[in-house]
Amino acid sequence: MSAANLRARVRAEMTEEIKAVAKRHLATEGANLSLRAVARDLGMASSAVYRYFASRDELLTALIIDAYDAVGDTAEQAAAAAGSPLQKWLAAGHAAREWALANPHEWALIYGSPVPGYAAPKDTVEPATRVLLLLGAIVAEAYRAGTVAEREPLTGRFAEEIVPLAATYYPDLPPRLIADTIAAFFQVCGAISYELFGQLNNGIVEDRRGFFDYQLRAAAKLAGLTG
Amino acid sequence: MSAANLRARVRAEMTEEIKAVAKRHLATEGANLSLRAVARDLGMASSAVYRYFASRDELLTALIIDAYDAVGDTAEQAAAAAGSPLQKWLAAGHAAREWALANPHEWALIYGSPVPGYAAPKDTVEPATRVLLLLGAIVAEAYRAGTVAEREPLTGRFAEEIVPLAATYYPDLPPRLIADTIAAFFQVCGAISYELFGQLNNGIVEDRRGFFDYQLRAAAKLAGLTG
DNA sequence: CATTTGCAAGAGCAGTGCTCTCGATATGGC
DNA sequence: GCCATATCGAGAGCACTGCTCTTGCAAATG
Questions:
Q1: What pLDDT digit, counting tens, does each position of B94-126 carry?
Q2: What's residue A120's pLDDT?
Q3: Which of B104, B29, B120, B31 is nearest to B71 (CA)?
Q4: Taking a contact as any Cβ pair under 8 Å apart, which residues of chain B between 37 and 66 contact chain A?
């Protein structure tokens, strides 16, 4: 390993360290991440951080990508360990919810309102689609197995927009089922977000997991999963 | 009208003016509302604003309450002008979505992630329930009319939590239907939020209204509305 | 050994929320 | 009408933020 590679490795380690501290700050302090505070925690000058991230937004982007990957990982692993498509759906949903409860501010970063003045760069769109692709794969598995009841084809102009989308990502799924899967995905994300963001306070407080499971099954049914 | 009342009226007008400018800033600048910038726009010192709002959070709270009221108003008016429960549901949903598209940052304020370090005070819980109450009333109307198909009763611990909630707000609805209405509400809010927050980019872009209508009908079906 | 490159530190700018003090003005009791 | 009181606006100031620029040091390169 040449010296240049060593330099690059040290740099990568430093970058990871900054992200780690930033995540810790995000978890404890809340969403208004302070680059200076991160630098203080690392015992370095704030200006030194700019050697690794050109701006606070760029650091946030890195955290967003990591968050998409983290929730995607947990959901994929949970789904892989389950049996039937419905069980995979439930496992992935509960895994995502538990990750969100454990990392509320990171969840808010990706599925909450965009950060003030922050425009998501292109680097984030690919990891963002990961969970939706997973859900599509689960539905596709059920569809191939023939357990999805036949549905009326889609009507409406948006159906035409879904067709090329379907061809690219879910070549073996009818557009109608894609639309239903997206809708179910939004439903699950909404259920997680609105529990997390406090819209359930003064309502269900004890058995939130049970209520989420109820919604998760409703979404699964919408996406065509039975059993 | 006594002088004291006049003073109070002037104070109320000033308070409204500050809120109006703050909303304008929210609409143009984004979510990171600057109290100083608002003060500058009003031609007054930043410290003077603190005579009317003890903190930036308090101003935000006022804006949140106004936003809940605004979206509640539009939804209620739209529903009132419609005929059947399903039509009311659709009208309320589309009205909420259009309001959200017209006031994205205000929508993010109430249905997005909570603002950094901001804890919603009790003043906001009552206006927050307004839309959900409207939807509950629509479903209750359909239920009384007998057009809602019978469903299995709820099982699970969260069902017990819904019972007192149901007794308070929807005395004539079975808990199962309440849970379904809440789930449908989350689904609709999620559909609006994730369209607004860009999760639909690179997907459906032309006929977003059509796709929302599709989801809105799915949610209505979940809540028991047919027709 | 000399030079280029990468990195960290510090000062500094413009902006923020918020507090405090100090005058000006208006209100209410006598 | 006069004076005590309450209310309000302005300004200075504190601690903080993101970000830039310059300076100096250390390591890799020739």
A1: 999 999 999 999 999 999 887 545 566 678 888
A2: 65
A3: B104
A4: none
The reply to whether B134 Cβ lies less than 7 angstroms from strand C is no
Residue A192 has pLDDT above 60, yes or no: yes
What are the Cα distances from residue A218, in Å, to B33, B113, B118?
38, 24, 32
For chain B, the first-to-last Cα distance in angstroms comes to 54
Q: B25: Cβ under 7 Å from strand C?
A: no
Average pLDDT (B176-188) is 96
* Mutation choice for A interface testing from B26, B33, B111, B113 by most A CBs within 10 A: B113
Q: Which amino acid is at B112?
A: G
| Whole-angstrom distance, CA of residue A134 vs CA of residue B69 | 38
Mean pLDDT computed over every residue of chain B: 92
- Distances in Å between the Cα of B190 and the Cα atoms of A136, A176, B30, B108, B112 are 18, 19, 21, 12, 10
Closest by Cα among B104, B69, B86 to B196 = B104
Q: Which two tokens stand for residue B162?
A: 């819904």
User: Which residues of chain A lie closer than 8 angstroms to B205, CB-CB?
Assistant: 161
Helix (H, G, I), strand (E, B) or coil at B174: coil
pTM to 2 decimals?
A: 0.94
User: CA angle, B180 as apex, A154 and B210 as ends, to 5°?
Assistant: 25
Q: Given A113, A215, A218, which is nearest B197 (Cβ)? A: A113
Is the CB of B133 less than 7 A from some atom of nucleic acid strand C? no
